Amino acid sequence: MKMQAEIEKDLAQLPILEYVFLKPSEIIFSKEVRDLCEGNSCGMYNTSWACPPAVGSLAVCMEKCHAYDKAMLFTTATEVASSFDMKGWMRARIEHEALTDPF
Questions:
Q1: pLDDT tens digit string along 55-101?
Q2: Hey, where are the domains in the chain?
Q3: Distance of alpha carbon 14 from the chain centroid
């Protein structure tokens, strides 16, 4: 496995705003967020491998995540014309998700 310094060198080449390495046990798994997912608040429910129900129940998702020793959380940022710029939101989502697509 790559050492953290090597990973950070690779990350510097990507359009990532910020990132943090952490232990999976530090991640807060929220039933309230899952409820928003199941209510399809963002329109992605049952359309993406990274969203419910593909990731399993909240308990299954937690179990899968806790099986790892380390995790990395990252954010990206995209400028949009306004808070009502739906095309900008979609472009931002596509650009962000491209970073997590398998090579």
A1: 899 999 999 999 999 999 999 998 899 888 989 988 988 888 888 77
A2: 1-23+69-103, 24-68
A3: 15
Q: How does DSSP assign 14-50, residue by residue? A: S--SEEEEE-GGGSPP-HHHHHHHHTTSSS-TTT-TT
Q: Are 61 and 24 in contact (CB under 8 A)?
A: no
- Between the CA of residue 82 and those of 78, 79, 86, 87, 89, what are the distances in Å? 11, 9, 9, 10, 10
Residue 32: pLDDT band (50, 70, 90) is very high
Token pair listed for 101:
């697509």
Please name the helix (run of DSSP H) or strand (run of DSSP E) that holds residue 71, with its range, or none. Answer: strand 71-75
For tokens 């990731």, what's the residue?
Answer: 55
Give the predicted TM-score (pTM) of the model: 0.70
Asked if 19 and 73 count as a contact pair (C-beta separation under 8 A), the reply is: yes
